[in-house]
Amino acid sequence: MSKVRDSVLTRGARGIGALVCLLLALLSAGWIIRDLAVAQHGADIWWSWLGEARRPREFTAWATSALDPLLVLGALGTAIAALRTAVAPAVAAGALLSVAAATLLLRTPLVWILGAGWLQGLDTDLTGWARLTALAQLALALVLTVVVAAGRQPGGRTGRHSGRFAHGLPEGASSAYGVVHAAAYGADPGPPGRPYKGPARTAAFLLGAAGLAVAGWEIHRRVRLGADGYRKGLLGDASVFRALLQPPAHWQSAALALLALGAAAAALRRASWARPAAMTAGALLCVHGALALTLAVRTGEFGRLAGLPAGTQLELGIAAGVAAAGLAALIVAARPGVPGLSGSADGVRAYGSAPGEARPPHAPPPPSTLPPGW
Fold first, then answer.
1. Residue 362 lies in a domain
2. Which residue ranges run through the membrane (predicted)?
């Protein structure tokens, strides 16, 4: 006799998590609006996100990167998922933790970058507000982690191998021919929201391949640039600075590789939180690769691809593969997972109460000779 216990995210924890996600989205949205206000043309902010050297209208710096609209959309989507009771508790918790992990990884370097001496040429009030925003978002990410950890309570259901019903017979059982468990004894789909085997393996392969490709390219950059040159792109420097809330390029790539490999491991284990983790990593990888490809098209590199150095060709090939793998992983992870058991808490099902009613595949057939009075 065994029992299956699911941790349930309480309604209060879901509400607090949704509120924290909303605050995360508002902080990033405010800086996007600020960049639109200082841009000479509305499209300039888009080209700056791509990596072009567009300057704002005033003597100032851009504050946002392409990560910020992703953070806004991801936080808003997670807030909605946390409030929807139709979303399984494990999936809601995974979505909250995915947003928290991405925020922590991508905002951490801003703590020391926005306080560095080589930013003294910028408005100190502007850099101060940007640093305060980064610290606030890091604090909110930690709050999300605490909310998920503290807001879980033992609950759920008694396992289907207990040999008895936890809450009595299901409705209609008195007039039914028989009562069986909703799933066969040999089947063990797992907790609600868990990915099925096929999509889980596909997402694990896609994210694992993309994460290894990004990590491998970062190792190549480290060898090519040397320790000092790579450190500037990893920890920040005036020569690689682009926007106040944008992490250094090498740090960003390393963070995306870490998120992708972590989500791939979760998908391989078919963890109940693997789907939101895979969707988060897939979206970030897709945008990361797509931006590199769009910039290559913008600068004309694609038109002369055959004449480019082998290293540049390989970099564009990796960007295309990462974008495709991220998009495919996002689509696969968005598919519904294992549904929750319907009916009573023990997942039992009555059948045979109506003529011609379909019998569950794992239920025994009725006898050839019915009992008297049937």
1. no
2. 63-83, 90-114, 134-151, 203-220, 249-268, 277-296, 316-334
Provide the domain limits for residue 239: 7-157+181-351
Give residue 190's region: left, alpha or beta (phi > 0; psi -120 to 50): left
Q: Are 99 and 78 in contact (CB under 8 A)?
A: yes
CA–CA separation, 328 vs 322, rounded Å? 10
Write the pLDDT tens digit of every residue in 207-239.
999 999 999 999 999 999 999 999 999 999 988
Cβ contacts of residue 165 below 8 Å, gap of 6+?
A: 344, 346, 348
Looking at the chain, how many residues does it have?
Answer: 374
Per-residue model confidence (pLDDT) at position 360: 60
Phi, psi (deg, nearest 5) at residue 350: -95, 145
Chain Cα centroid distance, residue 213:
19
Q: What is the pTM of this model?
A: 0.82
Q: How far apart are CA 242 and CA 247, in angstroms?
A: 9
Q: How far apart are CA 234 and CA 244, in angstroms?
A: 15
Whether 91 maps to a domain, the answer reads yes
Q: State the Cα–Cα distance between residues 98 and 259, nearest whole angstrom.
A: 9
What is 146-157 written as a DSSP string?
HHHHHSEEEES-
Domain tally, the chain = 1
Q: CB-based burial of residue 296 (10 Å sphere; 0-12 exposed, 13-18 middle, 19+ buried)? A: buried
How is residue 176 annotated by DSSP? S
Query: Closest Cα partner for 261 from 155, 110, 105?
Result: 105
The answer to whether 280 and 99 have CB atoms below 8 angstroms apart is yes
Question: Left (φ > 0), alpha (ψ -120 to 50) or beta: where does 196 sit?
Answer: beta
User: 34 is written with which tokens?
Assistant: 């600020």
pLDDT tens for 146-164 read: 999 998 766 544 344 444 4
- Residue 6, SS3 per DSSP: strand
> Which residue reads 């409705």 in tokens?
171
Domain presence at residue 24: yes
Nearest C-alpha neighbor of 312 from the set 325, 302, 298, 324: 302
pLDDT at 320 over 50: yes
Q: Kindly state whether residue 175 falls inside one of the protein's structural domains.
A: no
